[in-house]
Task: inverse folding
């Protein structure tokens, strides 16, 4: 069954050409990209296109799209690139590379990835369209990488709009490239080794689509260029308790009522199942993080996704493994140097049931905590009953 977000992304691509999926880690951005690719590949020859509902849906899923809607051709190629700090304009648009010749070395012009895509779909033997997937968009200096092509992301400035020739299309002369008699010097293609002479009045094709992802928490990432971001239809990917609950066959209304009773000590937390504990863990952790740091720093539900594929009898142990290897490292990263907040989140105060795994480290003979630090014990190293008790108590 197609995920309900997939046709919305495809419709936004058809209309706006560029879509940005953003949110905290573990919210399924890369997974959704793969589902979109599978959806495009599975279309029949009729080329039917999904539509994006207007009104509240537009408000929730991104910026208002353009008024003219084209169709995404069936014959579409897919390219995938991951941006990083050293990714450059020369790799993405055009640059020069050394080439040996009889009299020494010459610098030969080469198309980068985006220009190669654009030129290929304008050739008779190439695909009719291309979907460029950019993972980790904000890890490169995007203003520098895109250069003047930020303008050409706007569908209003491409060669056609909804298949109709566009008189407003921006003509492109590449910087650093020599032109003569209406053509550029030969430029080497990134794929296949051929060369191409770019017309002096070349315009960017309509059917180049960009689907990008961005981690909103990444501290090593650079801020996105505002001119770039306003050319993307933005779709926020949020942590979803409901999605996790659906896949774990947990009724959220019943769980809410049960959680209220547990917190009011009307029933012990030991009554919680591993599935219920996983959902309540994510809920409590994100409530603390969201109130303290903002929603961008919350933890995604897919970090707990392995429980879905785990046999029910093994889910307590799998939940302990997920805690040790995925959840706790994310929590520690966010609360580095903030032991008081970490103590509150982990319920690591003296006398708490969680102190078998998390306890304040104290100096021998001292009454005050030693730098407020917390000793951490992997749950998988504890007895099963101890690990389960820790998870249940942190969850509520």
Result:
């Amino acid at each position: 069954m197609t995920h309900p977000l997939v046709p919305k992304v495809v419709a936004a691509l058809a209309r706006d050409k560029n879509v940005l999926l953003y949110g905290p880690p573990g919210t399924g951005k890369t997974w959704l990209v793969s589902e979109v690719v599978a959806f495009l590949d599975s279309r029949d020859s009729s080329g039917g296109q999904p539509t994006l509902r207007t009104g509240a849906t537009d408000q929730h899923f991104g910026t208002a799209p353009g008024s003219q809607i084209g169709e995404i051709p069936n014959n579409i190629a897919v390219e995938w690139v991951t941006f990083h700090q050293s990714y450059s304009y020369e790799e993405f648009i055009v640059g020069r590379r050394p080439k040996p010749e009889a009299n020494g070395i010459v610098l030969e012009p080469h198309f980068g990835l985006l220009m190669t895509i654009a030129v290929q779909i304008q050739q008779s033997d190439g695909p009719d369209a291309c979907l460029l997937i950019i993972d980790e968009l904000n890890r490169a200096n995007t203003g520098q990488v895109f250069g003047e092509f930020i303008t050409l992301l706007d569908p209003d400035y491409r060669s056609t709009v909804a298949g109709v020739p566009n008189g407003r299309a921006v003509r492109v002369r590449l910087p650093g490239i020599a032109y003569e008699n209406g053509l550029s010097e030969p430029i080497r293609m990134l794929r296949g080794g051929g060369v191409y002479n770019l017309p002096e009045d070349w315009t960017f094709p309509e059917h180049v689509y960009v689907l990008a992802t961005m981690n909103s928490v990444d501290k090593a990432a650079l801020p996105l260029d505002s001119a770039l971001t306003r050319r993307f239809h933005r779709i926020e990917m949020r942590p979803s308790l409901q999605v996790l609950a659906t896949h774990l066959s947990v009724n959220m209304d019943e769980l809410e009522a049960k959680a209220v009773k547990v917190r009011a000590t009307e029933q012990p937390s030991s009554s919680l199942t591993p599935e219920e504990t996983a959902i309540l863990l994510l809920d409590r952790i994100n409530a603390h993080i969201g109130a303290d740091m903002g929603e961008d720093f919350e933890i995604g539900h897919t970090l707990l996704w392995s429980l879905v594929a785990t046999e029910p009898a093994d889910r307590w142990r799998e939940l302990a493994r997920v805690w040790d290897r995925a959840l706790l490292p994310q929590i520690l990263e966010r609360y580095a140097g903030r032991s008081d907040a970490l103590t509150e989140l982990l319920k690591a105060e003296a006398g708490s049931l969680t102190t078998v795994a998390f306890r304040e480290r104290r100096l021998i003979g001292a009454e005050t905590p030693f730098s407020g630090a917390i000793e951490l014990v992997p749950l998988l190293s504890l007895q099963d009953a101890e690990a389960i008790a820790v998870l249940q108590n942190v969850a509520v």
